[in-house]
Amino acid sequence: MKTKKKICIIAALLITVCLSAAQAGEDDSAGFSEDVQITLNFQDVPVADVLDYLSEEAGFVVVSDVVLTERVTVVSKKPLDADEVVSLINSVLADMDYAAVRVGRTLKILDISRAKYSSIPVSSGSELGDVPETDEVITHIIPIKYADAVKVKDDIASLISEQADFTSNEASNSIIITDTASNIRRIVKIIQALDTRMASIASVKVFNLVYAEADNTADLINEVFEQDTQEEGRRGRNPFERMMRSRMGDRDDNGSSGAGVISQNIKVRAAADEDTNTVVVSGPSDTLEIVAEVIEKIDKNPAEERSFFVYKLKNAKAANLKDVLNNLFEKMEDFNEDDRESSGRRGNIRRGGSGSSETDLSEEVYMEAEEDTNSLIIMTSQENYDKIKPIIDELDEPVPQVLIKVLIAEVARNDDFELGTEFSVLSGKGFVDTDGDGTADSLQADSELYGTEFLPSDLGDGGAVKILEGDLEFAFKALSSIGEMNVLSRPYILTSNNQTATINVGKEVPFITDTRTTETGQTINTIQYEDIGIILEVTPVINDEGLVTMDIAPEISNTTTETVPISETVDATVFSKRSSESRVAIQDGQTIVIGGLMQDDDKEVNKKVPLLGDIPILGELFKSREIQKQKTELLIFLTPHVADRNENLMKISENEKTNSESISEIDNNPALKKHIKNMQSKPEK
């Protein structure tokens, strides 16, 4: 009886323990789901922290046989499921020579050399789609259809990673490989290229490249040795096959050649292994000899082919041209790289600087400027030099030049001359209003416009800009009739296309900017010089049709009678300054007028009674002196002439630059009349 009681008690305890264990198992499994969605965002954290997070969030049981001390950054932009998480973790661990092997809900962290002996997934198939797109360690069986598995294994053994297990099974004619899935996909791609219908009689050769890129080289080999269907129907051979037959000796279908005859049914196939920069080629053995020659020519060190070339420039500046070309080559390299990535177009076959693409020269051309002789020193291959020389020839063409004839005049306005120079008196001779923006709007040639002033918007601070199409001498006569006109300067300036020319008619005036007293009581003044007068900057841009766009910036400055105190004992002079900026577009030979730049001056006027004022002593009673306000306006006339030849322009410019004397009467001054006519006559081209 006692024995039965003991048995019952033990049975009850066992049932309780089993139920507890089963319940615990159910609780554990409840924390794991294949449909879990996890977002990872870890920046430079210990890899162990990432695994702990996976254990908490995904329910993985993480078992690690190694001590993980490395730090990692793992970021996923979108949620990942369980399989994607394991694949991502394997990608991270692979760089540390570790692997994560998943068995159900358990995630084992092993040394990668031990992982391949664990319970890892097994797959099979000869297509890329048969291999998972992950970084997990798997075992994959690749059936070989046509080639001999043992021979294929020997041919590609050098392409297998060190940690992989790689063998062949002769009975099933298969290859068995244990490695990361990403590495296995690479091997499957290579085997696909080798396992062709005629593989049993084809040879395989592996080419290790040093300078050329494997993927581009493989593409070139496949393209060069591709047999055109129509060509095959007509002749049975592609051009390279015919070339090899001529070199090795041709035979008919029943004959034979000592060097061997190429079978028309055997095609050349090339596959690239980018990781090892290797090309694997299959085909007839005698064809592979030609392939070897082609690859040898491709895989050359570009440094061995470079030479030095000196290009002496005639017009362009060497330093400027060097910068332009170097920037161009760099942008071409970026463009080609983006183009290759986006469209898959074949780029250069180059590695470390080799290549032959017409638009990919940045790593092949080294250029320096020798400024003393204005030369470019270029180190590159003859082939590349032949490509860039036409570019340099184009850029070294003579730059068009512009002779700008300038006449600067000052008009003193009388009582009838109000609110700006009345350019409307010239409207009958054809002024064109540009409004300062280079867009010509013809003014109405109407006698009612006589005496009409510029609109306020035309004047402003910057003055008005007009284009004169009529007779310039008439314009000066008309202007002189409404005020006293004084020609201040009439220089000619010569400048190149898109280069700024400056006219400075004035003087440097010293003025005190600071004053201080030393401990000994000595006063020290700081002096600065200021350009006072007329400063005109003109930047012309010429197009092929002879249109000249000019950026014009006149500035007029002078001293005034006003002062401002800068210390107890020193007053500084106040300067007046007027400036404007305009952009106009006019045809070669047209004259542009800038007006509206006015100023008020105090002028001392002496008056006397005729005869009586000339009597000594008593004559003072018949004299008077008064200060009158006088308003003057500055007019700037510019006439650009475009010419390709320097000889005539330089001669005219040098002769006319020195002639800047003031002229007050147009009708009585033949020199000025001649100058005005010259402004409207183009120089000889």
Automatic annotation (TrEMBL):
Regions of compositional bias (Basic and acidic residues) in chain numbering: 231-254
Predominant subcellular localization, coarse grouping: membrane
Domain NolW-like: 139-198, 204-303, 309-401
Signal peptide as annotated in the record: 1-24
Keyword set includes Lyase: no
Pfam family, one: type_II_gspD_N0
Name of the protein: General secretion pathway protein D
Higher taxonomy: Bacteria, Pseudomonadati, Planctomycetota, Phycisphaerae, Sedimentisphaerales
GN (gene name): gspD_1
